[in-house]
Amino acid sequence: QVQLVESGGGLVQAGGSLRLSCAASGSSINFNVMDWYRQAPGKERELVASITFGGYVNYADSVKGRFTISRDNAKNTMYLQMNSLKPEDTAVYYCRFLSPPRVYWGQGTQVTVSS
User: Fold this and answer.
1) Which of 12, 35, 44, 90 could disulfide-link 96, Cβ–Cβ 3.0 to 4.6 Å?
2) CB atoms < 10 A from the CB of 84, how many?
3) What residues have CB less than 8 Å from 75, skipping those under 6 apart?
4) Mean pLDDT computed over 82-108
5) CB 83 within 8 A of CB 66
């Protein structure tokens, strides 16, 4: 059974940095796409960034130039380097791995950016 384990969230001041990780356990399958989503209080979950197995990346406009998504296919692990954090980046961040038709979600990790 595949489980996604996230780590790296926390409290940081505006302008600071955090690095999130999401690792898959219980499987050696290749995941086509890995994504980061986030959900702020009272808002819908939104896509932050995605990366394909081959390394093609896509970012939400709100994080372009500040966040960097990467993955280690050998370790089935994905990362999100977040720089120049803003209070509006405060949210629960979720990772999602796709191996069609299966979709796997992490449990979420809280990121809080203070002004």
Assistant:
1) 35
2) 13
3) 23
4) 96
5) yes
Q: Rg for the chain (alpha carbons), in Å?
A: 13
- How many angstroms separate the CA atoms of 51 and 71, rounded? 8
The DSSP 8-state label assigned to residue 32 in this structure reads S
Q: Over the chain, what is the mean pLDDT?
A: 95
**What distance in Å separates the CA atoms of residue 115 and residue 71, rounded to the nearest whole number?**
30
The set of long-range contacts for 44-52, using a CB threshold of 8 Å and a minimum separation of 24, is: 45/94, 48/80, 48/93, 49/80, 51/78
pLDDT of residue 112: 98
Report the percentage of the chain scoring pLDDT > 90. 92
